[in-house]
TrEMBL record:
Residues 25-340, 347-452 form the Carboxylesterase type B domain. Coiled coil: none annotated. This is Carboxylic ester hydrolase. Residues 1-20 form the signal peptide. It comes from the Bacteria. It is an enzyme of class 3 (hydrolase). GO terms for molecular function: hydrolase activity. Gene3D superfamilies: alpha/beta hydrolase. PANTHER family: CARBOXYLESTERASE (PTHR11559). Pfam families: COesterase. InterPro entries: AB_hydrolase_fold (IPR029058), CarbesteraseB (IPR002018), Carboxylesterase_B_AS (IPR019826), Type-B_Carboxylest/Lipase (IPR050309). It comes from Allosphingosinicella deserti.
Length: 470
């Protein structure tokens, strides 16, 4: 081979090695290999806890067994076990299964050597019975391009995520029992603290963001005594006013769980109840449970109770916010204009009320309303969850060839606010309309308006909310 060709070949191999080297990453359970595409590195399907199957069904997440060699991390793992439904706004990209406690990470391909980037951690919604980290619109690639490390993960849903039985309580030996989905979320945040530096992220600068059930989960984690020090900023999208949604707490959750057990012929006092319940096929545990069963029921909803206040992981968020007993971190909070319950309902009015409560403790609060509908929809008003693709700058994935230039402009602006907030705790930055801090006295917020503009000012629905919708 001629010298010039040899040098070119060596240079090519060196460049390829330089590109590939950062994709092999060591974490506390072993080495993983990701991929690089379009300026973004990604690692998917990383186990952050042992598979919660067999005897580990309805147990707190346990550590992952270390593996030898390099584990492939180029594809999403299974989303958690559930019954998907056709009208889901973010359809899953993988087949649901019990073995689902996995993590996904995106990071910019080029970052200053030694610099630790801000981290954004996403919690999906779905009423605690549906959802997952694999929907295409939930990719963190476009946010990573703006200079952050983006993390998403799965947590157990439905009866896998919330189940209370006297024998489970005894088995926990005084530890938390029942809120297994919240336990997964806490384990994921602990994993981030231990491992995110390996991907170029700063474990001391973590922003937790979630929508709907994910927003409620953010409220839970911000107020949880067990999550102290794990979160440094928070974004609550359509997460309500922070009130616990399950009346009756653990007692109501246990009653629903025992009613389900009885429907399978397993008596509450059967000494083999747990063995029999753990032996049931995963599809039997789902047993027709999903959002459609509650919001468009063709029959009485199956027995189920969502997450509840347990006093350990989950305190009553609204009460904690009012008393000031929460993580004093900057918070961005809002809802869509046509959210569940309308202008005076739990999402819109609740977000405004909670922003006021947080601001009243001299904690930075940035309140927003998302009023924009993608042009392809041809409608006025923004429905529940329609803001997610714009926050992630994935509207072009959501609406494909129907995406308009204005849609993309809205995505660029909102995602820039989010990234600025993750970096500094303040969403403002060059070229963006000034987003004012919220205070009850001034009622200043940011409206992502129907015409695609970011419009700061007094809440346009404030008087209607204050009048109770009259």
């Amino acid at each position: 081979m001629k010298p010039k060709l040899i040098l070119a070949a060596v240079a090519s191999l060196t460049a390829a090695s330089a590109l590939a080297a950062p994709l092999d990453v060591a974490i506390d359970s072993g080495r993983i290999r990701g991929i690089s595409e379009n300026g973004v590195k990604s690692w998917k399907g990383i186990p952050f806890a042992a598979p919660p199957v067999g005897p580990l069904r309805w147990r707190a997440p346990e550590p992952v067994a270390r593996w030898a060699g390099v584990k492939d991390a180029t594809a999403y793992g299974h989303d958690c076990m559930q019954l998907p439904f056709p009208s889901d706004a973010a359809p899953l990209g993988t087949e649901p299964a019990e073995d689902c406690l996995v993590m996904n990470v995106w990071a910019p391909e080029k970052a200053a050597p030694g610099r630790k980037l801000p981290v954004i951690v996403w919690i999906y919604g779905g009423g605690f019975v549906n959802g997952g980290s694999s929907p295409p619109t939930y990719t963190g690639a476009n946010l990573a391009k703006q200079g952050v490390v983006f993390v998403s993960f799965n947590y157990r849903l439905g009866r896998f995520g919330t189940f209370v039985h006297p024998q489970l309580t005894a088995e926990a030996k005084g530890g938390p029992a029942g809120n297994f989905g919240f336990m997964d979320q806490l384990a994921a945040l602990q994993w981030v603290k231990r491992n995110v530096a390996s991907f170029g992220g700063d474990p001391g600068n973590v922003t937790l963001i979630g929508e709907s059930a994910g927003g409620m989960s953010v409220n839970t984690m911000v107020t949880s005594p067990m999550a102290k020090g794990l979160i440094h900023k928070a974004v609550v999208m359509s997460g309500g006013d922070g009130s616990a949604r399950v009346e009756g707490g653990a007692a109501a959750a246990q009653a629903a769980s025992l009613a389900y057990s009885a429907s399978k012929g397993i008596a509450a006092k059967d000494p083999q109840a747990l063995d029999k319940l753990r032996a049931l096929p995963a599809t039997d545990i789902v047993d027709g449970l999903n959002l459609e069963a509650f919001f468009a029921p063709r029959a009485p909803p199956p027995p189920y109770s969502g997450p509840f206040v347990d006093g350990a992981i989950a305190v009553e968020p609204g009460q904690a916010y009012r008393s000031g007993n929460f993580a004093r971190i900057p918070i961005m909070i809002g809802a869509t204009s046509n959210d569940i319950g309308g202008p005076t309902g739990i999402m819109v009015a609740g977000a405004r009320a909670l922003a006021g409560t947080i601001a009243g403790h001299q904690v930075p609060a940035y309140h927003y309303r998302f009023s924009y509908a993608a042009e392809a929809l041809g409608k006025a008003g923004a429905d529940h969850a329609s803001d997610i693709p714009f926050f992630f700058d994935t509207q072009a994935i959501k609406y494909a060839d129907k995406t308009s230039a204005r849609d993309n402009g809205v995505g660029r602006v909102i995602s820039a606010y989010l990234v600025n907030f993750a970096k500094t705790g303040d969403p403002n930055g060059a070229g963006l309309p000034k987003w004012p801090l919220y205070a009850r006295a001034t009622d200043q917020m940011m409206d992502f308006a129907a015409d695609g503009r970011a419009v700061p000012g007094k809440d346009p629905l404030g008087a209607q909310i204050d009048a109770g919708g009259k």
